[in-house]
Structure formats: structure tokens, C-alpha cells
Specification:
about 325 residues, alpha/beta, Rossmann fold, two-stranded parallel ribbon, 14 strands
């Protein structure tokens, strides 16, 4: 992750009484000297018939709503400026919200996007909300998903890396994860914990055996992982840190580690792939992210290119169909 110069904050509701994403983005901006932009995407559907009934043009409605959003954002920005933070505000008609945010990040050259975790409405309660998933998948820069309202105070930053670089994972991604974590820990005077999960030993039951047969225990693998993790961390100038290797699947081990270590922020890597696996390694990413009890920073390889179109869509218009025979 590049040094933070411009942080883009997605403000879902400019009139909200509390804004955890804004608060934590401000902590990062103040500590790193980055500028902050509070951005609201006006992505709701506009009913043309309702405008006609009020005798209001689409242009008038768009300006009215945009000005109201900017006014609320400016109220928040003024409070932040009192703390010596350079803050800009922006509001645009564009949809869907995730793409609108990605487009704005591309235009402004944002180094980090900060957004609050959306409530999930999926049938499966653990699944990420659509907006979150699209943002993580398409964002051109790292994304910080804020899940906890309390502000950071010397946060414990847990970074999940893979020193064996399995699943064609490039070593440069682990370097980016560690560099991003080191910056945050240094700026916020936090604590760094570097972890790796070793898959459980495979147990196979023989047809005539009275009990399952374990072909190999994970003792040797865990030992190699500890050495590889130490070597990975030694390649970079990192602040004081602790290394931890545990046995278990990522789906269960990462959330459990975050809880046991008291992590305030978990830093994870993402890979762009085709088909169903075009983001993250494996198919447990949503489960891991939702199960984490803390904030999450997602970092991608440096050569990632988003597929989101650069041109804004403007307001989303819908006109009710005319009744038959009317």
C-alpha cells in the first residue's frame, strides 16, 4: 500500500448522528498527514412521475438533493478541520453506490477507501452485503471496512500472510500487507501481530482399518511455517511485532485469532481471478470477513485494474408504465 496522501470516505447517510468510518479515517489522516474527502453517492431511484406531480424538473431535484447532502457533509468537515485535518466534500448522482465510489476514487487518485460495513440482508446471515462485496472486488486501492464504532487507541493490527505463497499468491502481496500494517501501527502507535494459518492434517480412513489413519502430522509443516514467517518479516523494516502460526482452516482460525489477540484491525490480501474465484483465495472469503469481530483492511496486488467504467451514470430514473386505455 502506498503512503497515504488522499483518503476517500464513503458516507452512506450524511445526516447520521454517528459516523464511525469518518472518525477512523480522520484518525488515519491526522496521524499520516493525508487529506480527507467525505463523499456521498446519490444512488437512489428517482421517480419521474413524482417530479411531474410536484411540477419540479429533474435538474432542480438533482441540485436540491446534492446541495442538501453537501451542506450536511460540510457540517461534519468543519468539525474535523478544527483538528488540523484538510477535508474536502463531494456528492454526485451515480449508481450503483459501489461503482460510484470506485469511479470517484479513480478520478481523485485516492490511496484508501474507508466505508462502514453495510447490514446484510442475504438469506445466509454471514454473507457480505452486495455493496460491500462489489466495493472490495472492484476498488482500485485498499479498502478499510469499519465494523466497530469505538475509535482506535493504540490498535492491535493483525496481518494474515502466507509465507509459502500457495494458490499462486505472489510474494509482493505479502510485502504490501506488511508495509500497510507497519504504516498503520507506526502512525497510530499500535501493536503488530503477523499470523499464518496451516491447514489441518489430512486424515484418511482405510477400508479395513479400525480407525482413521493420519498420513502425516502438521508438526513439521508448522515448524517450516514459523521459519518462513520469520524470514518473510525479516525482509522488511517492521516495527516491533509478534509472529504466530496456528493450525486450522482460514474460515475458523482467522476470526478466532483476531478475537484471542484482541485485534482492532485485521489486514488481509485479495487476488483478482476469473469466475467465482476472481477475488480472494478460495471460496470462504465472505464467511471470514463477516465472522471477524473487528475492522478489516483489504489490500490487492499493485497491478490490479478495476473493470468499472469511468463514466458516471447520473441519476437512476424510473417512469411508471401508463395504464392500458388511459
Amino acid at each position: 500500500m502506498k503512503p497515504l496522501k488522499r483518503i476517500l470516505v464513503a458516507v452512506k447517510d450524511p445526516s447520521a448522528r454517528t459516523m464511525p468510518a469518518v472518525r477512523k479515517a480522520a484518525q488515519l489522516a491526522r496521524a499520516s498527514g493525508a487529506t480527507l474527502e467525505l463523499f456521498h453517492a446519490l444512488s437512489e431511484t428517482v421517480l419521474v412521475d413524482a417530479l411531474e406531480a410536484r411540477r419540479q424538473s429533474l435538474r432542480e431535484y438533482e441540485v436540491q438533493r446534492r446541495d442538501a447532502a453537501l451542506k450536511r457533509l460540510e457540517t461534519v468537515a468543519r468539525r474535523l478541520r478544527k483538528h488540523g485535518i484538510e477535508v474536502a466534500t463531494g456528492a454526485e448522482w451515480d449508481y450503483p453506490a459501489a461503482e460510484a465510489l470506485v469511479r470517484h476514487a479513480l478520478r481523485t487518485g485516492a490511496d484508501l477507501i474507508v466505508a462502514e460495513r453495510h447490514a446484510s440482508r442475504h438469506v445466509a446471515g454471514w454473507m457480505l452485503a452486495y455493496t460491500d462485496w462489489e466495493l472490495l472486488r472492484e476498488a482500485p486501492c485498499p479498502v478499510l471496512l469499519v465494523k466497530q464504532a469505538r475509535p482506535w487507541h493504540r490498535p492491535v493490527v493483525m496481518t494474515a500472510v502466507d509465507p509459502f505463497h500457495t494458490h499462486a499468491k505472489p510474494s509482493r502481496l505479502d510485502h504490501a500487507l506488511l508495509q500497510a500494517s507497519a504504516r498503520i501501527v507506526t502512525d497510530l502507535r499500535g501493536k503488530l501481530r503477523i499470523v499464518h494459518c496451516v491447514p489441518p492434517a489430512v486424515m484418511v480412513g482405510a477400508a479395513l482399518a479400525p480407525a482413521p489413519v493420519v498420513f502425516d502430522t502438521n508438526a513439521a509443516t508448522i515448524s517450516r511455517a514459523r521459519k518462513a514467517l520469520a524470514a518473510e518479516a525479516a525482509r522488511l523494516p517492521l516495527p516491533s511485532h509478534q509472529l504466530k502460526v496456528v493450525e486450522g482452516s482460514a474460515r475458523e482460525a482467522i476470526p478466532q485469532l483476531a478475537k484471542s489477540l484482541g485485534a482492532d484491525l485485521v489486514v488481509m490480501g485479495a487476488l483478482s481471478r476469473s469466475g467465482l474465484k476472481r477475488l480472494f483465495i478460495g471460496n470462504t472469503a465472505e464467511a471470514v470477513l463477516d465472522a471477524l469481530p473487528c475492522d478489516v483492511l483489504i489490500v490487492k496486488p499493485g497491478k490490479f485494474e478495476t473493470k468499472v467504467e469511468r463514466r458516471s451514470r447520473g441519476a437512476q430514473l424510473i417512469a411508471l408504465p401508463t395504464a392500458m386505455g388511459a
